[in-house]
Amino acid sequence: MMNSPQTLNLITLLSDWKLRDPYIGIFKGQLLNTLPDAQIVDITHQLELFNLSQAAFIAKNSYSFFPEKTVHIILSGLSFSAEVKPVLLFHNGHFFLGEDTGVFSMMFGVASNMEAYQYNGDMTLSTTEKLACMASWVFQDTYVKNTVPYPALKFQLSNLSEPDYNAERKTISGKIAYIDSCCNAVTNIPVSMFEAAGKRPFIATVSNIRSLKITRCHPYYNPRESEVFLVYNRLGFLEITLYKGNIAALADIRVGDDLEIVFS
Predict the structure, then answer these.
(1) How far apart are CA 33 and CA 99, in angstroms?
(2) First-residue to last-residue Cα distance in the chain
(3) Each residue's pLDDT tens digit, 193-225
(4) How many CA atoms are closer than 13 Å to the CA of 167, on its beta-carbon side?
(5) What CATH fold (topology level) applies to the domain 164-263?
(6) pTM (two decimals)
(7) Do residues 52 and 23 make contact, with C-beta atoms less than 8 angstroms apart?
(8) Structural domain boundaries of the chain?
(9) According to the model, what pLDDT value does residue 17 have?
């Protein structure tokens, strides 16, 4: 049995629903009707439609910034079928809630220290109403009573394979994981991996545009840099950026593109 939940009633939301439509606002209303004291934080609602790899990357690398026992609701890729029974996970001190589209296995694989539960309530409710109920069960510490154990997560391969550092070839191979609102291209290459390769000259190349060669890196955003450069972002990953330039649009960089860094 897990420890009793915190009293913050903190919920994060992550989706591809955008903000032009009313659906995020409506869902927040459903949450507040069920949990009037809930504190709701938006991670992002600008994910690419149905891009589960992107949702998994952002969720996996943002949840640890929040207090333990926060409920993180992932709304990307919902089917809204009347038959959907959402899934609740407890992993590394946090709760994760959503439809088992495969996004959870992309985030955590088959982690042995993960507990999973499935909705077992009123099936006449909509998908979002079920999610609101499950969030309330967490904060009321009744989720075990109102759910059933969920033995196996749906396995889904991510198109964001894990980055690889080959010391013999002196290369790092990674992927473009996310395009942010400033049109910077966020990679899945951790800063720690880049630093482990040593502070040496390098050439970084994005797969779809062989003409773009990146040879500079800064640990912070540098407005004096005139060339395209790599920067350490706040999630702890390398990011491709250009001062006052929408580099992803200018260079047609897309999620899933390969990035190879070759060191001298």
Answers:
(1) 21
(2) 52
(3) 999 988 899 999 998 665 688 999 999 998 889
(4) 5
(5) Elongation Factor Tu (Ef-tu); domain 3 (2.40.30)
(6) 0.86
(7) no
(8) 10-149, 164-263
(9) 95
Cα 212 versus chain centre, distance: 27
CB atoms within 10 A of CB 264: 7
The second-level CATH assignment, the architecture, of 10-149 is 3-Layer(aba) Sandwich (3.40)
In angstroms, the CA 95 to CA 148 distance is: 16
Radius of gyration of the CA atoms of the chain, in A:
20
- β-pair partners for 176: 187
**Is 75:27 a contact under the CB 8 Å cutoff?**
yes
- Which pLDDT score, from 0 to 100, does residue 231 have? 96
The pair of three-digit structure tokens given for residue 180, joined into one six-digit string: 């942010």
- Residues in the chain where the model's pLDDT stays below 50: 1-6
pLDDT digits (tens, 9 = 90+) for 5-40: 446 799 999 999 998 999 999 999 999 999 999 999
Instruction: List alpha helices for 20-126, DSSP H.
Output: 23-34, 52-62, 103-108
Q: Specify the long-range contacts of residues 121-128, CB closer than 8 Å, at least 24 apart.
A: 121/146, 123/82, 123/83, 123/85, 126/80, 127/78, 127/79, 127/80, 127/81, 127/84, 127/86, 127/99, 128/26, 128/27, 128/30
